Amino acid sequence: MLLAIDVGNSETVFGLFESDELLEQWRVGTDTRRTADEWSVVLRGLLDGSTLGGPEDIGGLALCCSVPSVQHEMRDMFRRHFGDIPAVIVEPGVKTGVPIRMDNPKEVGSDRIINALAANHLYGGPAVVVDFGTATTFDAVSVKGEYVGGAIAPGIDISVDALSRRGAQLHMVEIVKPRSAIAKNTTEALRSGIVFGFAGQVDGIVDRMVAELTDSPDDVTVVATGGLASTVIGECETVDLHEPWLTLIGLRLVFERNTG
What we know:
Elements (H helix, E strand, L loop, with lengths): L1 E6 L3 E8 L2 E9 L6 H13 L11 E6 L2 H14 L5 E3 L20 H14 L3 E6 L2 E7 L5 E8 L1 H11 L19 H28 L7 E5 L3 H4 L8 E2 L3 H14 L1
Parallel strand pairs: 1-4, 4-5, 6-9, 9-10
Antiparallel strand pairs: 1-2, 2-3, 6-7, 7-8
């Protein structure tokens, strides 16, 4: 089985594949203080608790990481604790099959390239991927499967956290769909601004990207992913599909391309 690991700034997602089927997935907090040994303990604990496979069943490892310090520890964990297992870490030199049409391709986060690869594989291009994470990222894929650029906006969680910190009479709220846009209390007002505000942001940016990608907007597939996607996409008019495990699927594809 293949273990795919997507390390984001806030959360790390583990996915267990048998061939092209995603059997199980786990989500844990990304802690930059964890050592390679601690990551191994976390990983083995998750696998030991699975009914589908344990550490001894892992035949391959694939990693993309947005946090350099964690990538260092993950690399060390692979070497020390899984040294006899083929491992692919998405970094310069790894074959993704995605041409990057950027001023400086090295600036593009590995997770964004992986998402572009998975979106093109599943749905074809042109496509736009909206990833709801620590930041909300928008990535454009051409009809040829090229990564042609994107946009980055502050994510939902950090925006809400900043608002509660800077607003003396505002507080943290559970982010759920508000009853109406015109709220009758502070909690509902916050929910209205957060949910409808981010939905409007998504629709606005996606509409602009689609117009720049093609003269045929109906040809563009808009895919949402990321841990916070379900919070907002129900209010978005431009999102066609929700694939919560898009990055894990892309990691499986990259592993196959680099190990034969």
